[in-house]
Amino acid sequence: MNKPVIVALDVEDKTSLDRLLNKLGDPKDITVKIGMELFYQFGTEPVKELVAKGYSIFLDLKLHDIPNTVYNGMKQIAKLGIQYTTIHALGGSEMIKKAHEGLIAGTPKGKSLPKLLAVTELTSISDDSLANEQNCKLTMKDQVISLAKMAKNMELTV
């Protein structure tokens, strides 16, 4: 079984983006991750261009807001033709459910539904920060497991 190669396009300008893409080879063999830096600087255009070239897209924006706002955001994201996108599991089960519904509503007919990935805790959060800033009584490991189980147990399907 081949494991997909995912390359983060964490660059600051289009010249650097083009240079990196030219080094990658056949777009059909690669998934590229577009994060906040690239997306907020250039908007949807790089996503559309990369989809048109045949790249598989992992749009990593980690949405976390009220359920209706996430629904509408995911509806727009799905229209881009991406394969993966992210939300924060901390947004709760209702937000995750609405994110999934938004993807269903926005996915063009005949296209595959993007996979929804739930981010549990950021790697920058320390145990101390988890306890004192988030007032979480669990260890980081237990918090991550708890959030992952919640997201997995939702069994979202089309």
Verbal overview:
The chain is 46% helix and 18% strand. The protein has one domain (5-122): Aldolase class I (TIM Barrel). By secondary structure, the chain is α/β, with parallel strands linked by helices. The mean pLDDT is 93. The chain is globular and about 45 Å long. α4 (67-78) packs parallel to α5 (93-106). Belongs to the OMP decarboxylase family. Substrate binds at residues 10, 33, 123. Its EC number is 4.1.1.23.
Outline of the structure:
Helix content is 46%, strand content 18%. It is α/β, with parallel strands linked by helices and 158 residues long.
Keywords, separated by commas or semicolons:
single chain, 158 residues, TIM Barrel, five-stranded parallel sheet
